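INFO  loader      accepted 1 record
INFO  loader      residues=156
INFO  predictor   begin
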Amino acid sequence: MYRKGLQVAVIGGSEAERDELEVAYEVGRILGEEGCIVICGGRTGIMEAVCKGAYDAGGITVGILMTSTGEDANPYVKIKINTGMGHVRNPLVVASGEFVIAIGGRWGTLSELSYAKIFGKKIVGYRTHSIEDIENYYDKEEFLKRIKELINSPPR
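INFO  predictor   done
INFO  writer      dumping tokens
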């Protein structure tokens, strides 16, 4: 049985490859359908794609935003957390999820992965940075299957 209300942090670049955006949408759709809460940076790229997937599935999306006004939120963010902290908000994103999903990404994603490691979070990635102890998948179906397994796993 899926754990309703499970908070999952999803990280990735504000610019991404088409394949990564498609995977992010699918991840969001799965999370939304199963009653999980999507936590992300709330901006464009991977963040927007995962939010759109969850939004389309009737899920809850939370954007921990860089600005103090929320103007940087994508249209699929249901709950805006306006920080005014710029990139310094990155640890808040990963700390807010029970586990972290990384899709692609560049320097900002690398920063979030570092914080996730510091916080001892489980990290599962799709074509993301190769870092010790991160499950990094290159096959879309295997990756999505693993996400479903994590959602089904008992709380730690």
